[in-house]
Amino acid sequence: MPRPRSGFAGTAPEPVKILGVKMLLAHTAWKIDTPVSLGVIVLTLAASVVMSLRWPKHRAIAAVPNPAKVS
User: Fold this and answer.
1) Cα–chain-centroid distance for residue 19?
2) Neighbours of 16 (CB within 10 A)
3) Is the dihedral of CA 56, 62, 65, 68 positive or negative?
4) What percent of the chain clears pLDDT 90, i.e. is strictly above it?
5) Which site in 3, 18, 31, 64 is 20 to 30 Å from 37, CA atoms measured?
6) According to DSSP H, which parts of the chain are helical?
7) Model pTM greater than 0.70?
8) What's the CA dihedral at 6, 10, 14, 17 to 10 degrees?
């Protein structure tokens, strides 16, 4: 079964990954500051909105016969 895609090119899980990395690095020498992580999240979401507006998905519409026209 194929995995469902969310967002434009799978961008919805990216903020969750960023937060996960921030949480994993919280108690190490490589800490990520909150403004930096929020900035990356906002830029990721803004880029996904811009890309979805610039290149919208083209969905194929299945041909459904009109019951009124079928003899």
Assistant:
1) 15
2) 10
3) negative
4) 7
5) 3
6) 14-24, 34-54
7) no
8) 80
Amino acid occupying residue 26: A
Q: What is the CA radius of gyration of the chain?
A: 20
| Contact between 37 and 15 (Cβ < 8 Å) | no
Tell me how far apart the alpha carbons of residues 66 and 69 are, in angstroms, rounded to a whole number. 6
Q: What is the pLDDT of residues 59-71, one digit of tens each?
A: 666 666 666 765 5
Q: Encode pLDDT of 3-21 as tens digits.
A: 555 544 555 577 888 888 8
